[in-house]
Amino acid sequence: MNNRSIAIFLYLFNIKISMRYLQYMEWTRKFRSKYFNGMAKPLVKWGITANQLTTLSHLLGLLSCYFLFNNHIVFVVLFCLHLVADGFDGVVARLTKPTLFGDYYDHIGDQIVALLLLLKIYLYLGDYYVLVILGIFLLTNLIYFFSEMKSPIIFVRTGTGVALIFSPLNPALFVNGTYLVSGIFLIYSLAKQIAYYSLERKK
Question: What is the three-state SS of the chain?
C-alpha cells in the first residue's frame, strides 16, 4: 500500500469516526431527555439552580484536566462526574427558566475544559499539529460567540474526553486519534461557519 492509499484510508476512516460521533451525540441528547428529567425534578424542589450545577460541572471539568496523564483513575471519575453535572444543568434549566447568561456560562465553561484537554495533549505529545488544532478551536469558538451562538459549530469536549478515558488501552491510537478527529470536526465547523456567513451576507 503506497502513501497515497494510506492517506485516503486514514481520511475515510476519520470521516467514519466523525459520523459515528455525531450519532453518539444525538443519542446522548435523547438519553438525557428521557432519563435525567425525572431525576432533575427533586433538584428543582430542593432549590438547586442550573447555574449552581454548571459551576459544579466546570470545577469538576477543570480538576479532571489537571489529573489527565497524571492519575488516570482520578481523571476518569472527575470527567464522568463533570459530564453528569453538565447533563443535569441543562435539564434543570429547561424545568425552570433558561437564561441567556446561563447559556453563555455553560458553553464558555465547556469550551474552556475542551481547550485544556487539547492543551494537555500538546504538553503530553509535544506535537505542534495540536497547536494548529488549538488555533482552529479558538477561531471557531470566537466566531460562534461573536455570532451570539447562532453560527453552526460542533463541540469536541465530550468526544475528546471520552476518547481519552480509553487512552490506556492504546495510548498512541487514542491520544493521536483524539486530536486528529477533533481537528476534522473543527475544520468542518469552520467551513460551516464560512457558509453560514456567506448566506447571511446574501440576505
Answer: CCHHHHHHHHHHHHHHHHHHHHHHHHHHHHHHHHHHHHHHHHHHHCCCCHHHHHHHHHHHHHHHHHHCCCCHHHHHHHHHHHHHHHHHHHHHHHHCCCCHHHHHHHHHHHHHHHHHHHHHHHHHHCCHHHHHHHHHHHHHHHHHHHCCCCCCCCCCHHHHHHHHHCHHHCHHHHHHHHHHHHHHHHHHHHHHHHHHHHHHHHC
Instruction: Name the more confident of 57 and 13.
Output: 57
Residue 9 has which C-alpha cell? 484510508
Say if residue 154's pLDDT is above 80.
Answer: yes
Rounded (10°) angle between helices 171-202 and 157-165: 170
**End-to-end Cα spacing for the chain:** 49
Q: Structure pTM?
A: 0.82
Domain residue extents for the chain: 3-198
Domain at 3-198: CATH code: 1.20.120.1760
Distance CA(93)–CA(50), nearest Å, equals: 5
How many whole angstroms separate alpha carbon 193 and alpha carbon 135?
A: 15
pLDDT exceeds 70 at position 126: yes
pLDDT level of residue 1 (50, 70, 90 thresholds): very low
